[in-house]
Design a protein that fits this description.
single chain, mainly alpha, 2 domains, 2 strands, globular, metal-binding, transmembrane helix, metal ion binding, AAEL012718-PA
Length: about 325
């Protein structure tokens, strides 16, 4: 029965592995070699299947030994095709869109500018606590014709921040602050700074900028929360700036007018004008009303009018064409 089953050709046995199918095909078989051959082939199939997971070389050796042991030395080993290499995993490369640097920079700049613009709008927006005339302290109710837009009493920081929003002192602050910058930028280049004229040049420069500085500080800090005494100190500072302009600022004009006079008369006029200026300073520091503060400079002003008439005459010195500069504050050519 065993010989009859082995008389035919043994069907090929296909061994499947994780990598590739392997065919074991014997070339020829005989009856005397069939004894035990079928069972050994089945056993070798299971052993070969377990060994296929290790490597292709192990598969070849196992197949060769199985065929040799089951079919005899006359049969040649089956040809095992080499296992095809597993292709590497495909990496999908996505095409990146070009970076819009300009747009990102705009976004970053916009994000950086947002807090700055927010702070700027906060500074430029008038606060809601601006007061009316009736709400102000007694010493700040000197102008009954301006009824709204008063700043509340503040500290130094609050007064400085009021530069950046509109209130009823904004025009006064700006019209006194801008001339300071303009004078300091233009007047020094016009002055003769030689040794013999240096003092008079300084008198002209300081006299030109002093009243603007005093009034700028007064209008900016007039709502200080330090009380009425601080307000009157600021008012005295404003009057001091005007006095410097009327005294030291006028010395170049007085000196030019008496330049051709004799030595005793020249110094008599200069000293007389200086004494009148000192008297005006005292009246300005002790004035208790707006009219007293205005009249304190009356005598020095009257003396300057007399010196102007002297300059027009043949007795006075100085170039007559420079009177245009004296009255209109323009540079003569």
């Amino acid at each position: 029965m065993q010989s009859a089953e082995c008389a035919g050709v043994i069907s090929p046995v296909v061994i499947e592995s994780a990598t590739a199918p392997i065919s074991v095909v014997p070339r020829s078989t005989t009856a005397n070699h069939c004894s035990g051959g079928h069972s050994s082939l089945l056993l070798s199939t299971s052993s070969t299947s377990s060994s296929l997971s290790s490597s292709p070389e192990t598969v070849r050796s196992a197949s060769s030994s199985t065929t040799t042991s089951s079919l005899g030395p006359q049969t040649a080993p089956a040809v095992v095709p080499p296992s095809s290499p597993v292709p590497p995993p495909t990496v999908l490369k996505t095409k990146q869109c070009p970076r819009d640097d300009f747009g990102e920079d705009d976004d970053e700049d916009g994000q950086n500018r947002a807090p700055l613009m927010k702070q700027l709008n906060k500074l430029l927006t008038p606060p809601d606590d601006l007061l009316q005339w009736k709400d102000m302290p007694q010493h700040l109710q000197f102008n009954p014709y301006v009824l709204t837009g008063y700043r509340p009493l503040q500290g130094v920081k609050g007064c400085l921040s009021s530069l950046f929003y509109v209130h009823n002192e904004t025009i006064n602050i700006l019209t006194h602050g801008i001339p300071i910058v303009y004078i300091l930028a233009t007047v020094p280049a016009m002055m003769p700074w030689e040794k013999e004229y240096r003092f008079l040049s300084w008198c002209h420069l300081v006299g030109s900028v002093a009243p603007w500085c005093g009034s700028f500080v007064y209008h900016l800090f007039m709502n200080l929360e330090l009380g009425e005494s601080a307000y009157y100190r600021l008012l005295q500072l404003d009057m001091l700036g005007i006095w410097i302009s009327q005294s030291f600022g006028a010395l170049p004009m007085v000196t030019a007018t008496v330049y051709c006079l004799g030595w005793p008369l020249k110094w008599l006029i200069i000293i007389s004008y200086s004494m009148l200026c000192i008297w005006g300073l005292y009246k300005a520091m002790t004035a208790s009303s707006p009219w007293q503060r205005r009249l304190c400079f009356l005598l020095p002003f009257m003396m300057r009018i007399m010196l102007t008439l002297l300059r027009i005459s043949k007795l006075g010195g100085g170039n007559p064409s420079s009177l245009t500069h004296v009255f209109l504050q323009v540079r003569s050519t």
